[in-house]
Amino acid sequence: MDAYDVVIVGSGPAGLGAAFEITERKPACSVLIIDKQRYSSGGMRNDCKMNFTFPIGFPLEYWTQEVAEKHLDKVAAFLKPEILPKHNLQVYQERADRLGVSLLEVSQTHLGTDGGVKLIKQLLGELQRRDVDLSLHEQVRTVDAAHRLVQTNLRDISYGALLIAPGRQGFRFLQKIMDAHGIPYLDNIVDIGVRVETRIDHYPIVRDYYDPKFSFPDKVRTFCTNSGNAHVVQEKCSTSYGETYYSVNGHAYAAVKGKENGMVNFAMLKTVGLTEPLASGQKFAEQLSLQAMLLGGGKPLMQRVGDYRLGRRSKHTDFNHDLYDFPPTLPTCCPGDISLAVPARILRAIWKSMKHLDTIVPGVLHPSTIIYYPEIKLYANKPTYLDNHFRVLDSMFFAGDGAGTSRGITAAWASGIRASSGILEVLD
């Protein structure tokens, strides 16, 4: 049987942040990172936008500004980001203020999907130099917390402390762990939305502010803006019953002169909290996604704004270089009518926010603009934590987006650092 002082499940930013902090503060500590994927996963592999301003990414139920900024300073000192400049924001802010909309000024860096992969390789190389073991394509099956044992598809491993940080993709895996160990939690909150794609000329604010953060009434916000060489992509997901569905997302690649496609995409997300009767946000989101798949023949839906305004579905003939200005970057989606798939209350709030956005940045609702659906974020597990280090059992800790301690790369890294302080206390 293999034995380690610390076992970390998940090689995303939360797991990496914890590993670097532990090996920095206790170099003799033996650390193993496990990931079920064949490659190191996590948000840095998906466009790699990082925000360094509170409260972006920090759930307020777990973070004060003082604590968050203290940990952000550590993240920034380690990653040494090149903060992107912002220009000419006053006119946008004034328009937003008149509509009751907030435009947050956030310190950001953007590496792109290719730059993120390069950074991951550098980070893993540094961990190897620190004698951290990384085991890819190894999947945790069970955890025996009483005897501090992890069983994977390959072996049994004993540990002194365990950090489970599987990210958003591990949302359901984390629930299985909590159910098996009687850890109380809620998952009644979910973000449901669409991804908007248009030409940069129709959303020129991105020339001055790479990922503009707008917050609208009705709990709607912009999220994950990609521009330059930007593409909408689909991600394969599965329900708790094993049914497959696809969600959309956005990617962009590092800026290379002459290779830009002139496109921009971003999400419009509405936060939905299910209360009476208290229900699972995950299962609610799964049902909405399956309904979209039914209408799209197993594919996500896409609709031109011009068609949506006229109350008609989009057709394949609407997605060409001529009639509607530009072709989609994800042409495999099914043209259709998203109003048949999105609950009316959610769609009304999103569409109202998009009209506000079109007033702030005129042109974004050009008839050619494409609305893709669904884009759903499952990262709202809310476990009952025993202390400020995200401890759930005597020697078990959680961190990252899947555990509800963060929403994004830098906050996930910060939550890994915060958990590591508790882990070191357990080991001592």
| Number of β-strand runs | 22
Average pLDDT over all residues: 93
Structural class computed from helices and strand pairing: alpha+beta
Number of domain modules: 2
Roughly what fraction of the amino acids lie in strands?
Answer: 25-35%
Protein architecture, described:
- The structure is a single chain.
- This protein is an alpha+beta fold and 428 residues long.
- The chain has 2 domains: 208 residues, FAD/NAD(P)-binding domain (3-Layer(bba) Sandwich), CATH 3.50.50.60; 189 residues, no CATH class.
- 29% of the residues lie in helices and 28% in strands.
- The chain is built from 9 helices and 22 strands.
- Strands 1, 2, 6, 7, 8, 9, 21 and 22 form an 8-stranded mixed sheet that branches.
- β7 and β8 form a beta hairpin.
- The two termini are 23 Å apart.
